[in-house]
Structure formats: structure tokens, C-alpha cells
Amino acid sequence: MHWQKKYSALTNEPNISYENLSCWLKNRKSLTNHLKNLADLRIEQITSNNKNFSLSEKYYFKPFRAESLYLREVLIYANNFPVMYARTVLPYKYLRGHWKDIKKLKTSPLSSVVYERASIKRSSFTYATSATCNGVKKVMPYGSLEKDFVIARQSSFTYKQKSILLSEFFFKALNKFDY
Description:
Elements: H1 18-26, H2 31-36, E1 41-46, H3 55-60, E2 69-78, E3 81-91, H4 111-114, E4 121-122, E5 126-129, H5 136-139, E6 149-159, E7 162-171
């Protein structure tokens, strides 16, 4: 996957409102909380043994071996449409500190952990389009959703010098919901 700081040349997908999508992409607050106000929200935890970390995830946690990383994967649905696939990666040892609640989330949103303290800082976003995201097949558990993938963003949350990495893959169905 090729991540970049800007997403000006998003994609050539027809029937995509880039103004609406841009609002979703720029939002630094909880997307799931916003979606709850617009639709019936459902979070499905993926319980696969998928340990296929992307290059950016491996690079971000390069001091750690892949076996020492924890992966939480969820599919987020709005009115039964899949709108997002999200991956949270962090070292297992961080699950003993503040980030321990991530392991207990199951079908609850990550926002219940990352926005609970003002001292948790979110990084800038990087983006990858469907054209530059050729590694998405490797990390996305449901190949059938790959054709609906439009754009991804990645950011980290840091608390007391311990970071987690969040990668969010947005699907065409998100465009059904006006920001």
C-alpha cells in the first residue's frame, strides 16, 4: 500500500460524491458516533486468525516482531451496508496498560477507548486510494468487499508514549450517508 499525506486525486469511481467523502475523511472525531446519529450501526468483530500485517503496520512497529503484535479487525455496517473495515494494531505488551480495554471491545467502537482522555493524541492522516492500495487483498478478510473499496486512511493514537495504529478502509456504501 502506498500511503500519502493528501488525497486530492482520490479515485475515478463513478457515483461517488467527493465532497461528502471528503467530510468523512477529514473528520478527526469518532466516525462511528457520527454514523450512529444517521443510521442503524452494527460492528462485527472479525475473529479470523488473520495475521497478515501490511508493510506500513510492520514498519510502524518495526522494533516489534509480527508475533508480538495484536490485531483487532472489525467490519462496520450502517443500515446493513458495509461502510468500513478497520484494523487496530498494537504490541501485545501495551494491552497491560491503558490500551487493555481494546481487547475487551468486541462489537463496541474503538472510540470508547481513544476519545476517553484528552491526553490521547491523534496523528495526522495518511491516505491510500484503491489504485495505490494493491496490498488491500492481503489484509482484507473478505475478498468480496475489495471491489467496493474506495479509499483508506491511517492514523495513530498515542498515550504516554505508547501508540496504536488504526487503518480504516472505506467502502462505496459510506456515500449513502450524507455527512
